[in-house]
Amino acid sequence: MIATRSARLEDLPILLDFEQGVINFERPFDPTLKEEKISYYDIKVMILSDEVEVIVAVENNEVIGSGYARIEEVKPYLKHSKHAYLGFMFVKPSHRGRGVNKLVIEALYSWIKSKGITEVRLDVYADNPGAIKAYEKVGFKSLLINMRKSLK
């Protein structure tokens, strides 16, 4: 049985591996990423923060997935004053297709609601139809398209 819980500092080694998994998966979609080893997050700070919730999925005492929600201030012209931003969605390849990401997102939704937040946002690469489909399954809809052009 797969369960979710808040990440703990002792989860840091596996979460750092997951971060590299996210980065390696995203490299083909983003030619602007540096070639050397990079880091997206300060996971230790995220785990300790009151404004961020890092959730892990666990099966048989093994951490198999992750995700986070971060509370953010928004532009003053929006109807809401804060929203939650989701990221760090990762599931070990051997556990994909089993609804792990959905369980993580549902746990994040619970935390977000407990903070009084009603709007949730995330980013996904346009060339990643698998991720887009997975997020649509849990109720997300496209809002904006972020475009880029290199002038090299």
From TrEMBL:
Domain N-acetyltransferase: 2-152
Domain of life: Bacteria
Organism in which the protein naturally occurs: Tenacibaculum pelagium
UniProt keyword terms in alphabetical order: Acyltransferase, Transferase
MF-aspect GO terms: acyltransferase activity, transferring groups other than amino-acyl groups
Keyword Acyltransferase: yes
Full protein name: GNAT family N-acetyltransferase
